[in-house]
Amino acid sequence: MRDEKMVTMANQIAIFFKSQPGDDRAERVAAHINDFWEPRMRQQLARYVDAGGAGLEPLLLEAFAGIRVPTEQAD
Amino acid sequence: MKPLPFDDRDMGTPARQGEPVRLTIDGFEVNVPEGTSIMRAAAEIGLQVPKLCATDSLEAFGSCRLCVVEIEGRRGTPASCSTPVAEGMVVHTQSSRVKKIRKGVMELYISDHPLDCLTCAANGDCELQDMAGMVGLRGVRYEPGRNHFEQRSAVGPNPEYKPADTSNPYFTYDPEKCIVCSRCVRACEEVQGTFALTIEGRGFESRVSAGGADDDFLTSDCVSCGACVQACPTATLQEKSVHELGTPDRSVVTTCAYCGVGCSFKAELNGDDLVRMTPYKHGKANRGHSCVKGRFAYGYASHQDRILKPMIRECIEDPWREVSWDEALGFAANRLRGLQEEHGRRSIGVITSSRCTNEETYLVQKLARGVFLNNNTDTCARVCHSPTGYGLGQTFGTSAGTQDFDSVEHTDVAIIIGANPTDGHPVFASRLKKRLRQGAKLIVIDPRRIDLVKSPHVEAAHHLPLRPGTNVAVVSAMAHVIVSEGLMDEAFIRERCDWDAFQDYVDFIKDPRHSPEAKELLTGVPAQELREAARLFATGGNGAIYYGLGVTEHSQGSTTVIGIANLAMLTGNIGRKGVGVNPLRGQNNVQGSCDMGSFPHELPGYRHVKNEDVRSIFEDTWGVTIDPEPGLRIPNMLDAAVDGTFKGLYCQGEDILQSDPDTKHVAAGLAAMECVIVHDLFLNETSNYAHVFLPGSTFLEKDGTFTNAERRINRVRKVMAPRNGYADWEITQMLANAMGGDWSYSHPSEIMDEIAATTPSFAGVSYDMLDREGSVQWPCNESVPAGTPLMHVDGFVRGKGRFILTEYVATDEKTGPRFPLLLTTGRILSQYNVGAQTRRTANTIWHEEDVLEIHPHDAEVRGVKDGDYVKLASRSGETALRATITDKVSPGVVYTTFHHPDTQANVITTDFSDWATNCPEYKVTAVQVSLSNGPTAWQEDYAAQSERARRIVPAAE
To answer: How close is the nearest chain B Cα to the Cα of A51, in Å?
Structure first.
């Protein structure tokens, strides 16, 4: 997927949870992405964050630590 | 052939509910509810009173005088259809006095009726014929005279004779056979609610008339629902198929394969020759009603375009080659396994069909999880109701509508938001209109002035014509009014909902930024109108919300669903009859395909694949290890295909190239794959990019179940052998076995047994149970053995209902100088989805091409006149179609349907999607409209490529 599209999708999630009450917003963003994003999508997100993560919502970057990034390729 | 599961007799008048009343009819005692007619009471104990103008789908009319009876202690001979029972009443239905009256009445009827019974289409299926027999009519004493049936008299043409009206493609109206019982007129009014028919003239001049003086059935307001045909006691209104094929001698109860209402039908046949489909009156979704699609548009099943032999090709530039099933399945299995070896386990996937049965869907997702060993399974619910799953799951704890359709009979205020039931869910619309005529109020929230806003005897109390993309702002503004004016049901919220979350919600929603006044400029909805609508919903009694894809197919689709759930909780409208949150599902088995674990993140019964306890149930049953990671959703599959990491797809009964947004992107994704298997009835648009075509079977050709929008599991019964040789579940099983699956189902009932054994909400479901009960609404298990018509009655599935904040976020799809208009899309009554089925029926007479609705102001500044060819362009692509000028749409908004591949409305739609579920934003696209000479270059290229891709080389015999 184009990085631009991925950034849009990730930010949409962050923007939703940003509006929610509580102090677990980052955890909820991470949980949503872990629950619904296929490993390849999370890997692409990780590569993008490693490369600087330009344009990503701050909450998404905060949540990133909680996002599981599969290391190995499925056989 | 099994007998019908229920007594299907015509009881004469509708059933009533009330205190029991005891009476005696012809010496037999009977107990019936108060308000029941004598005619129905007699029928309850098996005594038929002769009748013509009465039928149990309609209120009594009392015009034919054939059903007269004598009642001890009462004078005269009252009509049994219109006389209610009374305690202790003693009735005689066969006294010599009433028998004489009936014979006289029949004699008069027959004196103006042709006696061509032997060659009449209704021969053997005619109530007039039956009644003449029953009353013992043996002759007509009247001299020949003025009549309606002789074409010529001794002196010339008979001025009273009118030839049959054959303008409707499915039925004829033959006035010479009409007995003016008014059943058709009353059915059009009471059952369908269209009011297209009337009786014109008086006395001998009385005639059934469709529309005005110059109209025939086709040009009138008639929507061809078939209610009049169903009600007609003679051959006056008769299916053309019966004229052609004769009267059927057997019938099988099954379920319609069109929309999510899930109507029950009787397939009526001679041998395996389908004569007609008639609505089944014990069907709990439709209660004996139907629409033009289910009733008449089944001809696609025998259309010449159907592909009946498997086909393969090396690459998509080649013509198709017809091959044996073994060769096709071997080819497909080798390619898929090869792709997995080369590109990894997760490089292939499936798309399950929301048009196929639960059992078939279950097998397709099992193929992904148990044979491919990944979770790359998705279904077209992704592109329609996936936000419903997320939104209702988060707020209520379950991904489904809360009510049954009967519930609408108890509704006082209905909100219809983002749905157009008279076109999309016509039988539900008729049931809603019936309730509205009884006085219930209606609020329509839709950018278009849909027919429900104002139609005969129905007028919405409020229509909020919002700008596409502002659903969240409107729904939040309604909640703002309810909270700030103190109209919420606090007792309900305290008892049923999470109080802390509610406090957060109140703080949020009270903020003036959510007020209707603050949002008026954004939404285009007058603040005062919105306030009044909110007050009406909060204070008007039982409030029910019905919504469709105009809610879900947005960047904030899930947020709007949450907002709707919030509104229902705020007003205490959950957990009893007449209320609730009701998603109107697009396709027949959208609910079922979601229930069956079609989504890539959850196993059957909405249980996430990350949960080991859930995986272990299926691992033990299937003997495999299930991937704990969520798989790719449809848009993600296409993205991954373009990236080169997703290579193979098995797509059952869905045409993603035509139905999914941003056609060029879909095409690029499909073209990048090395093995696309299309399993369908026809060479659809997606098959242009396919390497394997597996011919599918229709709903008439297989056993199974569909689950409709009210969670009702209905049986689909095989009425004829599959023309392609196999039912779809068999084909999936053969593919699985070609890949080493080792499956051995011999009947779909065994698949349902496996579903019941693994999925708690289906634990009590079996084919025996469905045959016995007719249908059942899940959850159905030990604690609710008869199923669950209403959800969340004593508490929410998740425990406490949860309010979630709904901040409005504008979509990135914005109008500007290049694309100043907003396009929204939808569907029309006579066509269904991509049109693969309905375009192959006579329904095309009502809609032969997609047209663009545009407001007169927008048309004028562009020089567009009604019927002009216009180019419709967005940043994704452009197409051309004809314009129709109408103020149904607001200025700034244009609308079209996506039923025809030569228009391909989805060339225009973009790749924006719902934040939570990736459900595409079909309903908002910034576009420009300009005059055009004809099809765009893209359309011409597409048509040429499409033709090339469909070449077939027949197998050498």
So the answer is: 19
Task: Report CB contact under 8 Å: B600, A38.
Answer: yes
| Per CATH, domain B386-446+490-583 is 3.40.228.10 | yes
Going by their DSSP bridges, the two strands B925-931 and B821-826 should be labelled as antiparallel
B344 with A73: Cβ contact below 8 A: yes
Is there a contact between A21 and B504 if contact means CB atoms under 8 Å apart?
yes
CATH among 3.40.50.150, 3.10.290.10, 2.40.40.20, 3.40.50.300 for B821-949: 2.40.40.20
Closest C-alpha to B862, from B815, B923, B932? B932
Q: Looking at this predicted complex, what is its ipTM?
A: 0.96
pTM for the whole thing? Answer: 0.95
> What is the Cα–Cα distance from B239 to B220, expressed in whole angstroms?
18
Q: Tens of pLDDT along B820-852?
A: 999 998 888 888 888 889 999 999 999 888 999
The boundaries of the domain holding residue A11 are 3-66
Buried-state track A15-32, b at ≥16 Cβ within 10 A, e below 16 = bbbbeeeeeebbebbbeb
Q: Which residues, other chains included, contact B451 with Cβ-Cβ below 8 Å and sequence gap of 6+?
A: B420, B422, B423
Q: Searching chain A, which residue's CA lies closest to the CA of residue B630?
A: A38
B311-384+589-777: CATH topology is: Rossmann fold (3.40.50)
The answer, for A16 touching chain B at a CB cutoff of 8 Å, is yes
* Ranges of each domain in chain B: 311-384+589-777, 386-446+490-583, 821-949
Q: Count CB atoms within 10 A of the CB of residue B160.
A: 17
Residue A45 lies in a domain: yes
pLDDT per residue as tens digits for the range B202-232: 999 999 999 988 999 999 999 999 999 999 9
Cβ distance B346 to A13 less than 8 Å, yes or no, reads no
A1 touches chain B (CB under 8 A): yes
| Structural domain count of chain A | 1
Is the residue at A75 inside a domain? no
Chain B: closest CA distance from residue A9 (Å): 6
A23 touches chain B (CB under 8 A): no
Chain B positions in Cβ-Cβ contact with residue A5 (cut-off 8 Å): 639, 911
Contacts of A41 in chain B (CB under 8 A): 636
pLDDT digits (tens, 9 = 90+) for B105-155: 999 999 999 999 999 999 999 999 999 999 999 999 998 889 999 999 888
